């Protein structure tokens, strides 16, 4: 099975590793995301080939679990990880780390 990673943020503010990963069925997989900006939230997204983007987790300060998937975040170290336990062929997808930064906005500005 093949996994690819992607990043949603301004250049050099978010780094995700590994960029490409090939895993055997049943393996434990970890995808890392580091960011250099202050954030309000971090999102882990998944996109299967030819499919739409699906939100897996939205994190702000806690660990979350959904079946075989676990997402962690360390705000102080500006790092998050997505763990996939007992990987399966259906896990073949692109995984995206997206951040919402915490910069103050000008009055009247909206995100």
Automatic annotation (TrEMBL):
Lineage summary: Eukaryota, Metazoa, Chordata, Craniata, Vertebrata
Classification via InterPro entries: Ig-like_dom, Ig-like_dom_sf, Ig-like_fold, Ig_sub, Ig_V-set, TCR_alpha_variable
An example Gene Ontology biological process: adaptive immune response
Oligomer status and interactors: Alpha-beta TR is a heterodimer composed of an alpha and beta chain; disulfide-linked. The alpha-beta TR is associated with the transmembrane signaling CD3 coreceptor proteins to form the TR-CD3 (TcR or TCR). The assembly of alpha-beta TR heterodimers with CD3 occurs in the endoplasmic reticulum where a single alpha-beta TR heterodimer associates with one CD3D-CD3E heterodimer, one CD3G-CD3E heterodimer and one CD247 homodimer forming a stable octameric structure. CD3D-CD3E and CD3G-CD3E heterodimers preferentially associate with TR alpha and TR beta chains, respectively.
Stated name of the protein: T cell receptor alpha variable 41
Origin: domain of life: Eukaryota
Protein localization: Cell membrane
Ig-like domain segment(s): 12-111
